[in-house]
Amino acid sequence: MRRLVTLRAAAAIGAVALMASCTAQATHAVTKPEISPANGGIPPNISVTPGSQIPPVSMPRMQPGLPAAIRLVTSDKHRFLALPSGRIEPVGQQHGNGEMLPPRAPFGSMPVPRGCVSPAGMWSSARDGTVVWRSRGTYNIATANALWSDAYSPAGAAFQIGRRGPLYVAPSGGAERRVALGEWADGWTRSGTLLTLGKEADGFAMRLRAADGSLVRTLATGLTTAEIDARTDVGNNVLYLAHGTIWSTDGLHVRALASLSSLGFTSQPPSLYGIGGGLVEVLGRNWHDVILRRDGSVFAEPTPPPATGYAAFGVNVANSSGTTVAYEIVRDSSWRATIYLLRAGETRGTPVLRVPHANPCDFPFSWHGSWLLYRSRNGSSYAIPSDGRRPLRLLRQINGERVSSARWA
Questions:
Q1: Does residue 31 carry a pLDDT above 80?
Q2: Beta bridge mates, 337
């Protein structure tokens, strides 16, 4: 039985994780603070325990030289730290916040609030349970799943009920109002404006709305599905395609970055991927690949492998300074992979590692400063310095347990 319920939503900073494709995916490199050599290189937010949860056996060691600690998790869920000294230490339940790179997310979006239904109605809350905004109206929906789109930020809240239904927008702490029909909320920008999309007779329209729902500007109309799917975020800006040009907006101002024809894209629209370090990858279906800086200048144009027999080309990730890009090429027949590091102006990266087992649908890279962490399909992980030194192979087993995860701590 359907009920009239009250919407509540939280405004909390974060990002909505979207599903990324196997053929090409990337995201921003996560900047990691340098760890002081004091305390053996153990990050301050990680508690090392004497081993009450770990079998009381001697700890193995690995080759020293890591730039920072790496958190290892075994198949039995035991957690360890691989320290720069080469020591392996067990850790307690608290662990570091290092993560492999997340799937790409819409620019400026907030975490999807947790929807609940109870006799008191439906509400949404942030991760800490705090509710900071509540709708003034009630809506004839059964659960939060009836919301076709929603987006929350400190600037305000926006939600659409039903696929072709009305869009409501409310400023922070204010009442919502209906502003459009058939227009859905894509996400809030860093400037505090709402990016929306809508289906019209001649294609899709992309607009910016203020926190009170008023129209700031129409970015483009008559867009194809491929064009609206190509949008991505680079730093504080949204990059999108419109009629043969790559555009950038900070949520208020708009500027053209580059024409697709000048980059060699003359047929189907390419996809855009923010790959970290202020760089954006422009990738066509035929693996034509161009990497741009945020000002539209060309950083590099890597040469793709043959169109058949290979996979994973286009899965690029840059370090936080935007000076080096990592990518891999996998052979379909053997799943053997070669990892490359690409620098400005190069057409082919320098091979730095070859592994026998790779997963082209995985996202195996994570940067820490000038070091790259790579995880292969069979669980082997490598820390790769970008200055030409040999990679360090991490332990595959600890106390007889297979290491199933490796992340910067």
A1: no
A2: 330, 355
